[in-house]
Amino acid sequence: MASSVASHLMPVFARADLAFERGEGVWLISTNGERYLDFTSGVAVNALGHAHPHLVAAVQAQAAKLWHMSNLFKSPDGERLAARLCEQSFADEVFFANSGAEAMECAIKVTRKYHAAKGHPERYRIITFEGAFHGRTLATLAAGGQEKYLEGFGPRVEGFDQVPLGDLDAVKKVICPQTAGILIEPLQGEGGVRAPEQAFFRALRQLCDDNGLLLVFDEVQTGMGRTGELFAYKRLGVEPDVMALAKALGGGFPIGACLATKEAASGMTAGTHGSTFGGNPLAVAAASAVLDVMLAPGFFDQVKRLSLLLKQKLASIVDRYPDVLSQVRGEGLLIGLQAVVPSPDLIAALRHEKLLTVGAGENVVRLLPPLIVSEAELEEAAVRIEKACAKLSKSHRKQEVVV
């Protein structure tokens, strides 16, 4: 278990009394030697699990050559990584950052600068959606609009118009001469594993085309295979103009990226943006290794097959424990269990069964296993989920009898 010694870390995380010393694939080993099935994956970060041999070898090899260099100089490895991302997507250009929040900040700046460079600096407002989560910087918090994260940090950054998710009429009503773009997650993760119909995304694309707006996708959580495609937008039949990536891009090594079409990024000239560590050689090596694995034939077919298998197992558990669970949501291996009991109780019960999960909005518990999870490991997870639900159901029935 975690040490009881006073911590000098700023207490901004409600940390569980649990610490890990190493990982192996889908498993984490605690400091007291217990093994946990990791269906959190660092919140959709460790997409290839822990200590993946190809990633380890790539970072070790790079560490022996060059750790860091300034972006004042050319980066051949960064160029190659950017080219691979563009080859696999709608994009023509990439900016490398260190995190999802930074990638989103870049996406916001690209959107505003696009219009300013065309002589319309008044077009800076961006339409966003209720339940969204775009990061922890002041601008990305304002874009997400959630009061619990904004409280205490002074006036919110101006320029974001938030509307209900899936409400096309509401989107149309807030478009004005100052509107620059529309920002949306293909599938809300933090917001409760929620997504509107595909037709909504097609309608947003049309609205952007008709009004000269940029369509921005936040794929920080959904990107890099999490929904069964390299990028979730490929499932929608809709291409954005700008897209933010991070989390699984480096397989656990910090790296973010903002991808854009040449037209959308036309205002981003020398000096308009920058990063000291963005495109760091170690991060680029990690992300390149992640792409090597994910772009191998059959990788995403396997993710889709396992997603279907997991959903079937979970649906059966929901049917048997309607007093604990009500619904299975999500795509690929971004799965949400909507709980009837308080979601923190379910997370704690699952952790007691040595299965690690993470909460989300709307009383949802997210299951985010590494994409390399095996069928046997999914079966083991289902057994542990059923055990947790059985205990919660029994406790719930006892409470009803007492009442």
List the helices and strands and how they pair.
Elements (H helix, E strand, L loop, with lengths): L19 E5 L2 E4 L4 E4 L2 H4 L8 H11 L12 H12 L5 E5 L2 H18 L7 E5 L8 H7 L2 H4 L9 E4 L4 H7 L4 E6 L13 H14 L2 E5 L14 H4 L5 E4 L10 E5 L20 H14 L4 H22 L4 E7 L2 E6 L3 H10 L2 E2 L1 E3 L3 E4 L7 H28 L1
Parallel strand pairs: 3-13, 5-6, 5-7, 7-8, 8-9
Antiparallel strand pairs: 1-2, 2-3, 4-10, 9-10, 11-12, 12-15, 14-15
Helix pairs in contact: 2-10, 3-10, 11-13, 12-13
Low-confidence segments, given as residue ranges, are none
Structural class: alpha/beta
Name of the top-level CATH class of the largest domain? Alpha Beta
Distance between the termini: 36 Å
Describe this structure in words.
The structure is a single chain. The chain has about 400 residues and is α/β, with parallel strands linked by helices. It has two domains: about 20-50 and about 300-400, Aspartate Aminotransferase, domain 1 (Alpha-Beta Complex); about 65-295, Aspartate Aminotransferase, domain 2, CATH 3.40.640. About 40% of the residues lie in helices and about 15% in strands. It has 13 helices and 15 strands. It has helices at about 40-45, 55-65, 75-85, 100-115, 140-145, 145-150, 170-175, 200-210, 235, 280-295, 300-320, 345-350, 375-400; strands at about 20-25, 25-30, 35-40, 95, 125-130, 160-165, 180-185, 215-220, 240-245, 255-260, 325-330, 335-340, 355, 360, 365. The strands form three sheets. The chain has a seven-stranded mixed beta sheet, sandwiched between helices. The chain has a four-stranded mixed beta sheet with strand order 1-2-3-13. The protein has a four-stranded antiparallel beta sheet with strand order 11-12-15-14, with helices on one face. Strand 14 (about 360) and strand 15 form a beta hairpin. Helix 2 (about 55-65) runs antiparallel to helix 10 (about 280-295) and helix 11 (about 300-320) packs parallel to helix 13. The longest helix is centred in the last third of the chain and has 28 residues, at about 375-400. The chain is globular and about 65 Å long. The two termini are about 35 Å apart. The mean pLDDT is about 95.
